Amino acid sequence: MAELVYKNIISDLKEKIFAGKFTDMKLPDERSLAEQYNVSRSSVKRALNKMSNEGIIFKKRGSGTFINPLYLKNESIFNYEEGSNLGISDNFRLKGKKPQTKILDFQVIKPTSELQRDLFLSPEDFVYKIIRLRLFEDEPFMIETGYIPIKILPKLSRTQLESSIFAYIQSELNQTASKSFMSIYAEP
């Protein structure tokens, strides 16, 4: 039940954020939100922490909790709920689009020190470097460069890369991907 409570708070706050209910970009304090939703402060705190982790809001010590203006400008076209598939292909299929993938490069490399840190790897680990052109409705959408530790998917091949990696993990390996990290860069 507590699980549902904090998700309901998040859902309602998101609706209010996009409806422009917080004109000063500041959310009410935890105590006020707990009273407003008639829930415990711990439920409110959990909801706010989750929203903060998702980049929707940020907390400023001594000033309160504010809406991240970047979140409002860049409402994601990717909708990830806890326990859902994290893949781009599946997100577009849900919206009725036709995704396609073309492999531009697939190789095994020694990760940079930055990748080792980001992916929690040791210096002797190797990763797949995957560069794919993503198309939706036959139009190029993005060039995606991904890195996957070999120890996570030791038998990954070009065939699996031509469709959703997340679907492959779920259907073929009977596992669930719990995290995916994405950085987006725009180039002319």
Approximate strand percentage:
15-25%
CATH superfamily of the largest domain: Chorismate lyase-like
Report the average pLDDT across residues. 81
According to CATH, what is the topology of the largest domain? Chorismate lyase
Radius of gyration: 20 Å
- The total tally of domains equals 2
What's the level 1 CATH class of the largest domain?
A: Alpha Beta
Low-pLDDT sequence parts: 75-86
Q: What characteristic shape results from the CA principal axes?
A: elongated
- In total, the number of strands is 6
Instruction: Give the count of helical stretches.
Output: 8
CATH architecture of the largest domain: 3-Layer(aba) Sandwich
Query: Numbering strands along the chain, what is their spatial order in the largest sheet?
Result: 1-3-2
Q: How can the largest sheet be summarized? A: 3 strands, antiparallel
The percent of residues in helical segments reads 25-40%
Distance between the termini: 48 Å
